[in-house]
Prior knowledge:
Elements: H1 2-30, H2 32-56, H3 70-83, H4 88-100, H5 104-117, H6 123-135, H7 144-155, H8 160-173, H9 176-188, H10 193-220, H11 223-227, E1 231-238, E2 251-257, E3 267-272, E4 277-282, E5 298-306, E6 318-325, E7 332-336, E8 338-339
Helix pairs in contact: 1-2, 3-4, 4-5, 4-6, 5-6, 6-7, 7-8, 8-9, 9-10
Amino acid sequence: xxxxxxxxxxxxxxxxxxxxxxxxxxxxxxxxxxxxxxxxxxxxxxxxxxxxxxxxxxxxxxxxxxxxxxxxxxxxxxxxxxxxxxxxxxxxxxxxxxxxxxxxxxxxxxxxxxxxxxxxxxxxxxxxxxxxxxxxxxxxxxxxxxxxxxxxxxxxxxxxxxxxxxxxxxxxxxxxxxxxxxxxxxxxxxxxxxxxxxxxxxxxxxxxxxxxxxxxxxxxxxxxxxxxxxxxxxxxxxxxxxxxxxxxxxxxxxxxxxxxxxxxxxxxxxxxxxxxxxxxxxxxxxxxxxxxxxxxxxxxxxxxxxxxxxxxxxxxxxxxxxxxxxxxxxxxxxxxxxxxx
Length: 341
């Protein structure tokens, strides 16, 4: 608007000059009357222009009050992040703001940006992304959202929201011992009375299911298998053709899974990615109480190198796997010779 005003003033001065200059030239012949006429004409032209514009224009000359509506505040934050795209806390705030506005697809994008900046190591980004995907109906607990909650639980094992969602996800997968342990931790956190009754009901049902399953397993499992130390010694090596793909400071994850089973691993270790390396994975390395493995059990061992340090496998990660029987075969040679597509 200031540019427009300057142009308008300049044009008014030019118009005044066309009237005043001839009058001033005549003043040398006619005397001071023409000079005064030039001054009066100039003032009338400039002053009249200003008065007429102010009277007939719909422009508000008063300063505008700041529009503090939630939508405009979120818009300003989004524009600020365009100039500072590395602001992790800003992207988290933008994700929460979009969630409050129920713009869940936009919230998911903001949280995904935060997750990339944090290289998969920020529990708030993972949790917010998972929740936004569920609200936007782009995923559910047995899909990507469930995997994100499991990853967040590793980073923040005491998060009430993550425990709740991951407990329900474990129930949907049929992993009752895992779900029971998570609901028990929720109950220990002192939830409100109306929530406490629901959690207690879920615990009662899960406890009965777990006990009946344990009783059946106890009859079929010999005592020697139950009391023996469950461990898998490993000799980990890296295929020479992949050595250049391992970056300095990369993380090595060694996981034990039941073949074909989804959800969190039975046991896991996080190590420095160096090779060759001797590792012993034990049942005591279980991520959660109620999981783990026993002697004689068939399991799959996966060794994965993550340059990003993320607990969830990503494209470009190096890995190797082997099917083993716990307690048999001595040291297992496991070679990392594949690349995650």
